[in-house]
Amino acid sequence: MWGDSLESVFMSPQMLKYLATEIINACESMSVVRFGRWGSGEGYSVGLFNDGRIDLFTCAEDMGIYPGRGEGNQLLRWGIEFCSI
């Protein structure tokens, strides 16, 4: 994403969830939407969960799981991603 409205859209979890919901509902094969800031490496994933809700993924680091420290070799559950990479 880039442009004049980037900051207000990118920093609004509600807007990201709204946009992802529109995309996921319009595309049956879609289960996750990734939003990223052009050239920054910063991004958020919003996905469809088993219970039918569409929500932001949780950062593994917020759960004490870090890549490259042993724990990073484990498989992450759906809805959890490494955010610091």
Give a quick rundown of the structure:
The protein has helices at residues 6-10, 13-26; strands spanning 32-36, 43-48, 54-56, 58-59, 80-81. By secondary structure, the chain is α+β, with helices and mostly antiparallel strands. The mean pLDDT is 83.
Features:
single chain, 85 residues, alpha+beta, three-stranded antiparallel β-sheet, two-stranded parallel ribbon, 2 helices, globular
Element layout with pairings:
Layout: H1 6-10, H2 13-26, E1 32-36, E2 43-48, E3 54-56, E4 58-59, E5 80-81
Parallel strand pairs: 4-5
Antiparallel strand pairs: 1-2, 2-3
Give an account of the 3D structure.
- There is one protein chain.
- With about 80 residues, this protein is an alpha+beta fold.
- The chain has one domain (about 5-80).
- The protein has 2 helices and 5 strands.
- The strands form 2 sheets. A 3-stranded antiparallel sheet has the order 1-2-3, with helices on one face. Strands 4-5 form a two-stranded parallel ribbon.
- Strand 1 and strand 2 form a beta hairpin.
- The longest helix has 14 residues, at about 15-25.
- It is globular, with a radius of gyration of 14 Å.
- The two termini are about 20 Å apart.
